[in-house]
């Protein structure tokens, strides 16, 4: 079982296609991992055991018949509980939607179904996707598979845990301020946020109209490339989805980054950074240099303005989405969440419009500062070591607010700028907790971002480590 569940998503898909294993065997192995680990880690909100076993058996019968197989045929997955599947409950990690039955299926789930993936159920998450740590009052906190008292990162907490703990081979998260990349970093897996609008958001509970992103948490950059190729693209049901053609992301994963130029902004990303994080980041840069990339440290003063604007946009848009429930059911929100939403109502409309108006100019300025003559921007995903759940519990102690917000300091700017960004494991601290490397590129340059992430994973073995 261990050898099978330790395969990457693409390795398993290939093994199933070649007849070296079966979808049913992989699904049963995942269910065994879930049975063993979920009582401690609390990754799942709902487990659809019987349906998954039936779907896996059907997938094996399809392969045996000689039918054409999709690129994810027979691969077990599970997804953050905010992706709607028609007729199924989608809680969004909340009391308010504990019994909400989805009226339609999210486009991204339809695409995964068409590619042959097996859906095992829904995963834990921060309430309404609105915190960076993974705390959840209604369904209980998810726990870090490397050390359970520590944070998983959020809001896609269950997704990070399930992939890291080998309960599933891949999982959908969502990313509005870092909610894919943070669980990837804190749980030691790969997490990709594409360019804003790269993947359809139809059938997904929103948090922020202009900063929400759909994307995967996986074992490897190659897994993320295949997942993105399946899910990206124009969707008539989401008028904001991009019209750009979807390239063959896996074709870019040559391992060759000779001549690629990597920029390291000196502002913002290293403020108050822990020494062990900086040391792991520098070692990661050395690994990329060993592959032939060049590293340049530079100044990007636009980041301070970006940080201010992202807070305004996310607060106001979140408050707007929750306005009716806040009037009618405010007591059903966790204290820290209602406090954040109320803060959005206090911001003047002029601040919000100004923050939106600055978005294009600040993107151009940042690209001029950090990407003119460069291919990739590299930073630590998290400035500090992984905090504990207790240290970031702001419902228990509001004094923890600073540590709570610091978790997402390095990820939020790329949501406002809309740039494709990935987090990959690049080391561990003295407590055996993961450290993440964050790589960002120009708009719609997911292929280049994944190329560098994959080259790093060919040079290092951090992504192959397994909790336990």
Walk me through this protein's architecture.
By secondary structure, the chain is of the alpha/beta class. It has one domain: Amidase signature (AS) domain (Amidase signature (AS) enzymes, Alpha-Beta Complex), CATH 3.90.1300.10. The chain is built from 17 helices and 11 strands. The protein has helices at residues 2-5, 9-17, 23-41, 49-64, 107-114, 157-164, 181-187, 221-231, 275-290, 302-321, 323-329, 335-345, 349-357, 359-370, 401-406, 412-417, 446-459; strands at residues 44-47, 76-80, 118-123, 170-174, 190-193, 214-218, 261-265, 294-298, 376-380, 421-428, 434-440. The protein has an 11-stranded mixed β-sheet, with helices on both faces. The two termini are 15 Å apart. InterPro entries: Amidase, Amidase_CS, Amidase_dom, AS_sf. Pfam families: Amidase. Residues 26-450 form the Amidase domain. Its EC number is 6.3.5.7.
Structural topology:
Blueprint (H helix, E strand, L loop, with lengths): L1 H4 L3 H9 L5 H19 L2 E4 L1 H16 L11 E5 L26 H8 L3 E6 L33 H8 L5 E5 L6 H7 L2 E4 L20 E5 L2 H11 L29 E5 L9 H16 L3 E5 L3 H20 L1 H7 L5 H11 L3 H9 L1 H12 L5 E5 L20 H6 L5 H6 L3 E8 L5 E7 L5 H14 L9
Helix pairs in contact: 3-4, 6-7, 8-17, 9-17, 10-12, 10-13, 10-14
